[in-house]
Structure formats: structure tokens, C-alpha cells
Amino acid sequence: MRKFSVLLMCLVLFGSLLSACGGAPKNSGEGAKGTAGNTSGDSGGNAGAGGEAGDITQRKVTLKIHYPLPDETTLRKQEDDKIARFQAKYPNVTIVKDDWDYDVNEIGAKMASNEAPTFYNTWATEAQLLVERGWVADITDLWNNWEYKDEMNPVLQNQFMVDDKVYGITQNGYVTSTVINKKLLDDKGVPMPAFDWTWDDMYNVAKGTADPKKGISGIAPMGKGNEAGWNWTNFLFEAGGDIQTSEGGKLTAVFNSEAGVKALDFYKKLRWEANAIPQDWALGWGDAISSFKQGRTAMVIAGAFDVIQAALNEGGMKPEDVIAYPMPAAEKGGKHYGILGGNYLVINPNATKDEQEMAFRYITFDYFTDDALKSVEDTIKARKDEGKYYIPTPLEYFSEDSEYAAKVKAIYDKYDNVYKYDPQLFSLLEGKPEAQFGTQDYYATMSNVVQESFSKKGTDSKKQLDTAAKYVQENFFDKAPQQ
């Protein structure tokens, strides 16, 4: 879910220097105009003014880059450092900063007016839409010529591969997890569940640790904002359901299925039978994370990094008491599905060939570098000096079996303030992508269903889901672009 990318973005390339963040695409070979005041007017092998044919480093190129928002001061400093290092290597490139943050309601106008950056940030949910609308460049050739393509994390990278073509570059990602406060379980004499756990196990932990009189819940599912629908959708997936199907160019809402009913009924059991959720259940993302770090809930559902970072470095909890689990399977032997999300950088299709290539070089400039390794080690040392922990993200841009991953692990192993995930987590995590159109609209609609389920006892799950599916279908999915 896009709302949860902000904290993850801060850990891109381990806090190093990686940058974050319409009309039919024009063929740059046909004289497409560049973005951000391109001064060369050339593409392909044509020489720009004063340059040499065939050597892009000798031609003037202007990039309008995605730049962090004004309140992201640390990220801006990191980006400025990256710009300086990039221009030292490519003095022929002029950098123009653009802090526009991707918005699905604005991208079409940005492309039509040729005001979009040369590259911009987006999320895993947007691949199909951007490709269909022609708002993202096909970078397959650039990708195939890149020496590190085979070391990238395939789970994440595949989200921006459509019909065997590459349209974006992953920055980082997450699979939604459940994080458990072991101390609360110990205090109540509740045993820690096996990592290969089920809904029944989650129910028993939630019921066993809840202490409403003390204001402690067994689990804090998010109950307001789009995040309420986002949290619930994990259970829809675990029950074997889907959000939508696509046949013959038509999207159909299918979350009002038997699986959907099963998932919603489980939520109601946690609320009305176990009395395990907070009495004030209208928690947003930040509220749920805060409840966990303050020791007021035994379990919370989110990207593991965000929860652990808050618990250890803000809540003062101990690493041995904060355990990341996969989402529970609906039944023994089932899938531990968690929503797969991520952050991506994509290139403007209206940019010239030179601009697209330089944008690709800029995006990947700090990938797989010794500078990035030094940065992560420096960050770990700085955290140690501050008495804080370094929390790796469970899913990085690089493959876990790559040579680079081994170098990163060697650094982690040198320090006792690096949080270590239980290896069992990674053997069971299974990400399932979000819907490729209308995701946020669907989440908002399901949030209303979750709220009704938590506030009114005895609601009819099937009727609730049928009503929600009809609304989503008519107002959003029927308006989707044809496949």
C-alpha cells in the first residue's frame, strides 16, 4: 500500500544516497522533445552541440529528477550528495530538481503537458495502469545491457515486468507481516506460536494476551483510513480470495467470495468473541504502530521494518522481545500470504533516448557499489553511538543470494546493534501483489466494511461484501482502461 512507503524510502540503499521517487509515448528517434528544458535536442547516436557521435558523455543532457519533498531534509541532503557525485562523473549532465510526488490523479495531466520529470517514483500497484496508458518508458534494452540485472531481487523486480518487457527499477519492498511482542505473551504465560502458524494460533495468542481492563489488546488491526482495508486484504488472500479478476479487457470485483466472507468472519471473531482488539479500534497506521511500541498490543500487522524500527529505537523495546512473523495461514498447510508492495522508479516515455539512458544511469548510480556498503556501515556505527539499532528491510533491491548480499551480510555480522530476523521468516514469507487498478478505492471501501464490522455486532458478512463489491465495480473497476 502506497501510504506505507515513506519510512521504507528512508532505508533505500541502507540509508545511502539513492534517489526516490499521459498521452501516448513519443519515439525519441522521431525527434521527441525532452523534459526539463533539454538543451541537446538530440537522441540516439546523433551528436549534440559540441559533442561526439556515439558517446553520450560528450553530449549535453538535462535530467529533471525526482527530488525528495521539502520536509524530507535528510533525504534531500543525501540526494544533493548523489547529484554532486553523478555530475563529477558526467559533467555533461544538467540536473533540474522536481519534488512532484507521484499521484495517479495527476500523472495524466503531467504527461499531456510534458511537465513530468525525466523519471519519477511510483508503487507496485501502478505497473499495469502506467504501461496501458503509455506513461512509462520501455527500458528493456537498457536493462539487458546492465551488468547487475541478474543480481536484482526477482520478487520485487518482476512487478514492473509486463509481457517480458521492463518498465521500472525496484528500490525496495515489503511483504506484510505480523510483529509480535514476546514480552506480553510471556507475562500472560502464552507460548509463542510456531512460525508456520494459522488463524487459530493468531486467535489464541490475541485472546490470551488481551487485557481490556489494562488497555492492552491482543492484536491491533488498523481500523480507519485506507489502511483498514489494506490490513484486512491479507486475510482475504490467505483464505484463497482475490480482489479482482481480468477477462477480455474487463475487471471484475471478486472479493465478495466465500474466501472474503471467511476473512471478514475471522475479523469479527477477534472483535466480538475474543474481545482482543483495542476498545478504541479506530486506529490508523501510525496509531497501530504507536500502540505496539508502547506495549499496548501484542500483535500488529504491517511491514516488519516499520514496526521494529519504532519499537526498538522509539519505544525502547529489546530485540529479543520483538519478533517478525509471516502472516498466518488460514489453515495448516496453507499459504502465508502477505501483501507485496514496493517502491519503483520509472522513466518518462517522452524523454529523448539520451535522457532515458542518463536517467537509467542516475537511478542505478549507487546500486551494488562500495560507496553504498560504506554508507551502511557508517550508518550502523552512527546508530550504535546513539544507542540505537539498525533495522535492515526484509526485502532489498538486490537478490538475497547475490554476491552483493553476501557483502552486506558480512557487515551486519560485525555489529551487535543490527536487528536479526529469524531465518524461518524468510522461508515462509509469500508476497501476493495488490490489485493493478483502483487499489486505493477498493481499500477505502473495505475500510468502511471493517468499521461496520467492528462497531455493529451480528452484521451479515456476505451482504456487506456484496454491497461493497457492487460499489467498487460500478464506480471504479468499470472505469478501468481496457486491457
UniProtKB/TrEMBL annotation:
<feature type="compositionally biased region" description="Gly residues">
    <location>
        <begin position="42"/>
        <end position="53"/>
    </location>
</feature>
<feature type="signal peptide">
    <location>
        <begin position="1"/>
        <end position="19"/>
    </location>
</feature>
<dbReference type="InterPro" id="IPR006059">
    <property type="entry name" value="SBP"/>
</dbReference>
<protein>
    <submittedName>
        <fullName>ABC transporter substrate-binding protein</fullName>
    </submittedName>
</protein>
<dbReference type="InterPro" id="IPR050490">
    <property type="entry name" value="Bact_solute-bd_prot1"/>
</dbReference>
<feature type="region of interest" description="Disordered">
    <location>
        <begin position="27"/>
        <end position="53"/>
    </location>
</feature>
<dbReference type="Pfam" id="PF01547">
    <property type="entry name" value="SBP_bac_1"/>
</dbReference>
<keyword id="KW-0732">Signal</keyword>
